[in-house]
Amino acid sequence: MNLQDQFNPIKAIQTLKDNAVEIQKLGESITEKRILLSLSKARLADKEKELRDEVFGGLEIQATKLRDWMFWKKATEQKEVDTLSDEIKIAEGKLNILIEINNTVKFSYKIYEMEMKGLNYTQPT
Fold first, then answer.
1. pTM assigned to the model
2. 30 CB-near residues (< 8 Å, 6+ apart)
3. In whole numbers, what is the pLDDT of the chain averaged over residues?
4. Angle, CA 37 vertex, CA 31 and CA 51 arms, to 5°
5. φ, ψ for residue 56, nearest 5 deg
């Protein structure tokens, strides 16, 4: 049984490199989206304050009607917050998958190295 038929160390190293690049890109993307999410949440809070001030400028109003009206008036800002939150969750999921793949490849490579040492096999360079 040829161990190189089962595990290709060169391909494993390339996979690790490719995944490291993708992990870095995803990390940067998540950071950017978190900043955008924070800004969106701030705009949403500003909109809510603006709407409260508009409604409570001396008038008394039922809380349920106010909530319904505010929900309708701030729908655009809420959609932006929800969309960014979803994009961050998806990117974090991809990041976690890539990290797990890299950990598995690293572990496989370590097993391969140990088997090669056990067989006194030196890998061609």
1. 0.52
2. 88, 91, 92, 95
3. 82
4. 165
5. -90, 25
